[in-house]
Amino acid sequence: MSQSGVLRPGHVCIRVMDMDEAKTHYTQRLGLLQTDEDDQGRVYLKGWDEQDWFSVVLREADQPGMDFMGFKVRDEATLEDLATKVEAFGCKVERIPAGELNHCGARVRFDSPTGHNFELYAEKDWKGNGLGLENPDSWAEGLLGMQVARYDHCLLYGDDLDGTVKLFREALGFDLTEQIMDGDLMIGAFLTCSNKAHDLAIVRHAEKGKFHHASFLLNSWEEVLRAADLISMHDISLDIGPTRHGITRGRTIYFFDPSGNRNEVFCGDYTWYPDHPTITWTADELGKAIFYHDRQLNENFLGVVT
Amino acid sequence: MSYQVLIEDTGEDYRCPPDRDLLRSMERLGRKGIPAGCRGGGCGVCKVHILSGSVTSKKMSRAHVSVEEEASGYVLACRTCPRSDVRLKVVGKMRKTVCRVVPAGRSAKSNEGKAGSVVESA
User: Fold this and answer.
1) pLDDT tens digits, residue range A13-29?
2) Contacts of residue B45 in chain A, CB cutoff 8 Å?
3) Cys-Cys crosslink for A22: which of A16, A256, B71, B72, Cβ 3.0 to 4.6 Å?
4) Nearest in space to A10 (alpha carbons), one of A143, A83, A103
């Protein structure tokens, strides 16, 4: 595992239009646990098997979408080193003091060529997964809904895909696991800082700063099917699935939160190591790349973003 | 009880009860390939202009319906319920599919996208 600098996607801040509806969706349907609410009304959530205090922040606003995506880095020295690198790359860097988000240390926020705001941080309060650290049991009881284990990655849409891919590869040390190419033009990139098939995905799109989905991990295909049942039981807006992606091999289902932000729950990809070569999908096989079973493109999935 | 909703662009009409949103009832027309979008007021795909009739809307993304637009009858169909018979015009991205002429007995083919649709603007 190439865990020298950036450890993982540590949090995502999602804008919602109605906090009560959003809380119900993210806690009772996805099964995230609420761990705090701050004096600005922002709600903090985590998957049951996450160690840090939160991985999702909900903020009420008049339009949905993503405020920022944060990555946890190994330590303070790494934070400073990477801050220097993203600034040298040409990003606008903003320092956010510890405590601006409850339980979170100092953050380095930077913009990107695709118009998204990203953050790096080294410290976050430890919450634990409830199982303890000595002779722990294997899973938590009393979980709700889909019982997602943890936040996994985001897919973002923006214009200067090449620029953001360069930023993550060159300044932050990410690997390109898979790419979608239309001739010489890259139209989709799957990037990892770990040994997952993706920690961040980006698709070329005319507008800057768009949010396609935030994804949460399940442990089995059976759990993906159970999530599909819950989507019907609670009349949640379904996008597509259950199905498999050619890209990353993930088994997946997509749906929307009550403000129209897309969520994914998925299981299974493969183990990436940094000496692996990048996989290429060609535009003429894009249907199979995205939906391995249907092998058909889906306008809703490709075009609907917040 | 339900109200009549007339899609001005095509002359089609459908029934929509006051507790169901305009998009959901339109989806029940059964037209394959109506790209319904997020159904949560976030993506703007189902934006319509209410030409006549009375409606109520829940909160909609300001990225897609400005205060001025809302005042002049632009709404997202997924967040809007009828309070009377309604006449509307489709202005969002679903216009392309809703307004496609479908020969009787045939369904619209929805998956003709090419690679270019990935880069298409919302």
Assistant:
1) 999 999 999 999 999 99
2) 300, 303-304
3) A16
4) A103
3-state helix, strand, coil in chain B (%, to 5): 20, 25, 60
Report which of A237, A262, A232, A268 is spatially closest to residue A250, judged by C-alpha positions: A268
Structure tokens at A36: 């705090």
Name the nearest CA neighbour of A226 among A263, A249, A253: A253
Backbone region of residue A293 per phi and psi (left: phi > 0; alpha: psi in -120 to 50; beta: other values): alpha
CB atoms within 10 A of CB A37: 15
Mutation test of the interface with chain A: which of B59, B64, B95, B96, choosing the one with the most A Cβ atoms within 10 A? B59
* Farthest-apart Cα atoms in chain A, separation: 54
The one-character DSSP state at A135 is S
Which residue type does A78 have? T
Instruction: Tell me how far apart the terminal alpha carbons of chain A are, to the nearest angstrom.
Output: 33
Residue A37, helix vs strand vs coil: strand
Report the predicted TM-score, pTM, of the whole model to 2 decimal places.
0.92
Please indicate whether residue A153 is annotated as part of the active site.
yes
Which ipTM was obtained for this model?
0.88
Which of A17, A18, A280 to mutate: most B Cβ within 10 Å? A17
3-state secondary structure of A7: strand
The verdict on whether A50 is a catalytic residue reads: no
CA distance linking residue B111 with residue B98, whole number of Å: 15
Of the candidates A80, A92, A158, A149, which has an alpha carbon nearest to the alpha carbon of residue A120?
Answer: A80
Residues 6+ apart with CB under 8 A from A95: A106, A107, A108, A109
Percent of chain A clearing pLDDT 90 (strictly above): 94
| Burial of A114 per CB tally in 10 Å (0-12, 13-18, 19+) | buried
CB contact under 8 A, B111 and A297: yes
How many other β-carbons are positioned within 10 Å of the β-carbon of residue A126? 10
Spatial contact of A155 and A189, defined as CB atoms under 8 Å apart? no
Q: Which helix (H) or strand (E) holds B66?
A: none
